[in-house]
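Re: weekly structure request thread

Next one in the queue (374 aa):
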Amino acid sequence: MDDARAFAPASIGIIGQPKSALDTPSLLVDLDVMEANTARMAKTFRDNGINWRPHTKGMKIPALAHRLIKAGAIGVTCAKLGEAEVMAAGGIGDILVANQIVGPIKIQRLVNLQRHADVMVAVDNWDNIREIDAAAIATGVRVRVLIEINTGMNRAGTLPGQPTVDLAKKAAALKGVKLAGLMTWEAHTLRLTDPAEKRKAIEEAISTFLKTAEACRAAGVELGILSCGGTGTYWITAEQKGITEIQAGGGIFSDMLYRKTFGVEHPYALTILATVTSRPDPRRIICDAGRKTMTGDAAMPEPIGLGKVASMFLSAEHTIIELAEPAERPKVGDKQEFVVGYSDTTVNLHDELVGTRNGKVEVVWSILGRGKLK
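Done, posted below.
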């Protein structure tokens, strides 16, 4: 998909302008940093002989997905069926929805989508698998599925060992469903701060996952895909022998949550550009970007280039910054940039992503997957 086809038409005129000329608030990505982060991740997977299926829940732009495939990815991962529909419409052919697709409306959408792309889904329930199977047969398609295993996150997923083996044997016998493999997400390890403790916890989770895969194979079930991993674990998970693919995607942007909490050593690419709208006193700065622009739930955004900040608060439309020491700058009308707190929830608030290089606007993408929650 050519990047030009994803341009936000109303913003074409700003291309070539300095980012300081942008109206605010605006969501920006530094293309040099994003490309370096992409190359770093791709090299990790290539060096370890692992396929890369980056998660797009935090980027939501088919043009970016095409860039990642050009960099070595085999396809993409989505959180929602609606996001997968956007990716398929944008020319992405190999998609995993790493969630359960439940109910007749969504299942019919899923089987219809198979005529436009190869869309796999996660499953962990026999009744749900049978419903997908029946709809696929009625539509004349076949749907690949991955059984999700709970290795410690305690969200969705079957129990490791025999419960997964039993479900895999039944799924493998169906005609409208093809059991393509297994998946897990070792997310319970994300917030471990000690590197040795984190590595040990990841290795234990992946070992449990791989032992279950071995048990399935010993029972006569063929498994091609063993999928797991995210940005907060990928450099360790990629070293675990037996894994076939990793779903990490948000690391191409990086943000405060990934760096400060999850220990991801990627520079920040994603920022919010705001305008200073008020300086009520020398310590206080008011900007035109609040919770409707950048979220602070998982991690707070961080202002760039200010002195020591005593506190920062996001209201609906404003950021209120209290400096530790009085300062004349920034003045009213100046631009203030923030590192995004959490990219997934921030990108979903915007219609456009502005790509900059060397401080100038190079490309503007429509965020085609925003709001695709169904």
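The chain is about 30% helix and 25% strand. The longest helix spans residues 195-218.
Next request, please.
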